[in-house]
Amino acid sequence: MLNSNGAAPPTPLLEIDGVSLDFGGVRALSNVHFNVYSGTIQAIIGPNGAGKTSLLNCISGLYRPQHGAIRFEGRNIVGMAPHHIARLGIARSFQNIELFRHMTVLDNLMLGRHIHMRSGVLSGGVYWGRAQREEIAHREIVEQVIDLLEIQSIRKKVVGALPYGLQKRVELGRALAMSPRLLLLDEPMAGMNSEEKEDMARFILDVNEEWGATIVLIEHDMGVVMDISDCVAVLEFGLLLANGSPDEVRSDPKVIDAYLGREHAVRQEW
Prior knowledge:
globular, 6-stranded mixed sheet, 22% strand, 4-stranded antiparallel sheet, alpha/beta, 11 helices, 39% helix, 10 strands
């Protein structure tokens, strides 16, 4: 089917097709539908308990929905193990920092390359030939991540000794080290001050624009969401209330009533 200008519509990179997820008698997601297109930043917003993280967990393979399909590049990934999904090109960060706190920043970033490592145990153990060449190649990619996120000065520091904001940046870096085509970010700015949020927003835009990664972002800071997102999906109690451009979503009466409560709150916060 052709769109209004006579061109074929773009093919979604990620399709959320009727996804429903239950935990016993509690429905976390109910028939959620929306598409994410290559090269975009797709935000997911909603109050606490809306199902946002549950949806990311379904995409990354941590949860298996009872109904619906999740297609990445046309392939249904429901039921696939998380490490297989990661190998397809999907990486994520977590709401709560999930780093190896007693290891250095560099070591944590190198661990992000593990899904791409091909050397066997023997060649890796003697560190010769293929294993040596492979580590050099992986190290070059990690160095690019370090430069992008401006963390050269902390590369050899132990992660657990870093301030919270820098730990969040390192976690983003570990996800980027996987060279993902789709990057899932679960509240990457939670707990940050305004300066740290500005830096993180800039890095996310750089990842999208310079590295070409498509991003699905959960975030509570509506100012950030409206500034950097191409499309915004709104969840409430597992239901999709709206999905559209920031301007469309901010003026949607259902979103105002259910999420923001009062229209003047939109003007003040957004």
